[in-house]
Design a protein that fits this description.
Blueprint (H helix, E strand, L loop, with lengths): L3 E4 L2 E4 L3 H16 L15 H17 L5 H20 L1 H10 L5 H7 L11 H17 L10 H4 L1
Antiparallel strand pairs: 1-2
Length: 155
């Protein structure tokens, strides 16, 4: 589904001809009524299957290592992989991280990952790169990861 236009808490899907016609009709009605319509475009947000994928990967990794919990793996991935991707793609996050967290020790940064949103503020493209990098990083360590949607075919 394409990006939507928000109007009075309404989201218009304008990725189809019909959606665009409906939005255009609303816009024309507002103009005829002497009102000034405003539109806000936003990138596609992540979806629940993507969130579930990251959590399933954390669980698979934790099951493959003896001394780390799912939360430990999640914090490690957020810090070692997610922070770099967000710093590269989000100027506001980079400023926040560099002024508030960069000077902390590695252990302090890991602890901070329980409180600092990393993956939850990623857009779809950055989150996809994050998942790819998690899989690549842990696969290089000899951990075999299965996409949860493919797991049933291996059972």
């Amino acid at each position: 589904m394409g990006g939507g236009v928000v109007k009075n808490n309404q989201i218009w899907d304008i990725s189809t001809d019909q959606g665009w016609q409906n939005f255009e009709a609303m816009r024309n009605n507002l103009v005829l009524a002497g009102k000034r319509p405003h539109a806000q475009f936003s990138g596609e947000k992540r979806n629940l299957p993507q969130n579930a994928l990251s959590h399933a990967l954390y669980a698979q990794i934790a099951a493959a290592v003896d001394d780390q919990s799912v939360n430990d793996i999640r914090a490690e991935c957020k810090l070692r992989i997610g922070v770099g991707l967000l710093r590269a793609s989000d100027d506001g996050f980079r400023e926040f991280y560099d002024s508030g967290l960069k000077q902390l020790t590695y252990e302090q940064k890991l602890a901070a990952m329980s409180y600092v949103p990393i993956t939850s503020i990623m857009k779809k493209k950055v989150f996809s790169a994050y998942v790819d990098e998690v899989i690549r990083t842990y696969s290089q360590q000899g951990i075999s990861l299965i996409n949860p949607s493919d797991a049933d075919s291996y059972a």
